[in-house]
Task: structure prediction
Amino acid sequence: MSYASSEPFPISLKKVTNLLWIIFFVCAIPAVAEERPNIVFILSEDNGSFLGCYGDKNAQTPNLDKLAAEGQRYTNCFANAPVCAPARCTLLLGTHATTAGTHHMRSAYKVSSALIPFHHPLQKAVYFVTGSKGDYNNATYRKEHLWNGQAGKGDHFNRGDAFPNFFAVYNIEHSHESRAFGNHPTKKLQHPLEIPPYQIDNQATRDDWGKVYSSIEKMDESVGDFLKAIERNGEADNTIIFYISDHGGIMIRSKRYLYDSGTRVPFIAYFPEKWRHLAPEGYQPGSTSERLVDFTDIIKTLLHLCGVEIPATYTGNIFAGKSPEPAKERVLLFSGRFDESQDCSRALTDGRYKYIRNYEPDRRAHQLLQYPLGQNAQIAHYRAYARGETNKTQSAIFECHVPEEFYDTQSDPHEVNNLITSPAHQDLITDFRQSLDQHLIDTHDLGFIPEPLMESVNKGDTTIYEWAREEGNYPLKEVIALANLASSQDPANIPTFQKELGNANPVMRYWAALGLRVLGKDAAPAELDLIKASNDSDPSVRITALTALGKIKGPQSSADLLLEEAVSANGNIHCNWALGGLKLLDYRSLKNHPKFGKQNLFNKGPYSNCSRNDLLNGKTYTHLPE
Ligand SMILES: [Ca+2]
Result:
């Protein structure tokens, strides 16, 4: 492919590749080619809505402000995932990453051939598709499978006469989370900084906010460069432009969280005069739209604007072009494992109200991951919490999830006032609860399959997507009902969990064990059932039962068996889960354990090693500051 530009014969290879595309798809060209627009789709990393055109006075973003003044700005656009690659995979396949089984950050599972990357229908219609990222959180589609050329190099401007149109995806990394790490440049702010109530106000926080605004300025400069290149190449009149951030911002309790700070994103759409008839209803230069939009809507709408065939598995609602569809009433948000720490949460928002369900409420909200603690502000916040210097709102992030959350983001934009027990909201909450379950069923959410089982299925001939659709493997309705009971942390459900530990299906047994684990010592009446489950044929059931037993009887009782599980694990995720059980039990006595010292007994996956290094140093989180 043309990505071979670093290889010996880049030019000839590129020509050959392009010729192949033409030969393959020439039959798809109608006798009189329909005129189509070019598309530029700009995604910036991690900046959320901290832009001048979204009312942020500290943000210097003249290029995006100009684009918004000439186009339409959306106020209710959501990234379905609050983190990079699962959000991008949702765009890639036009459906939630939870449907594809690509929701864990990061993972590399196979994608079913039933799910089609947006590149394929575009290339079939002889679009020249350029981009840069190959990191779409799966093993099937890497950049060499996707792009005709590189967007950053402007390959689409030199696509040749055989390609009437281009579809260019620009990814801008200047505003990525890592730019707030260490000593990246910080910016003196011109206006008072409004620090959200869940963050602490100190110099580290203020300095890191300065880094955020500095990085956003650079991001905006890149947007300007890309827009100038479109004009310089004479394509401006024929090019529709979409701009989004791939998820929310990067300061603490933003990226990786289902709150608006992690999922509500800026979205600007620009239609040149020639294609104004395809613009959404109410489109005027400088207008705003309150329509509820998510990433599945955006990619499906882009394909519709290009007039290409939309795969039947694309689940978005089209909001522009010849055949717009009604807006979704509610948008589904999801989060799973982040790096070395497993978790499972889902949310629904209608743009105002937000319902969040945390299916593992015995985990901390801040998962104490190594990566985000590269930020001085997050370290300072953790230190202040550990010293008891944070108030209730600032402490919540380092304490365990609550099973359910409900917010009115209109009166409480920072989502700090959980209304889940508010009498005035109970009817609405009941409706959101039922609606969330229905969304999970409608999207055939694969996120309730314990990941060691996903890892094991993926090693076989099938994909997780196909496996979960085989009769009896994944009874989703029953699984969700049990997961709801499990996450409710109510000891009244113990008899149900005891019974379901005997279910023939390992996914059901896993959620029964988890229901007992989240009860801690209250699960003591089920101790014998858990001892039996600690010998289960499925590793996720064994690990969860051992962790539950460790909570009842003390970590020492389960440590050797969890360690044995890690040493003999069949895969990196399996190993990571076993070590994760030790971390959840805050087990610190492995430093001198003879087995644990032998690194070669462990799988080499990065996440297993993260956990292992923590535990090896006699702590559960060695990267945490004292
Ligand atoms: Ca990102």
Observations:
- Residues 40-335 form a domain with the Alkaline Phosphatase, subunit A fold (CATH 3.40.720.10).
- The radius of gyration is 25 Å.
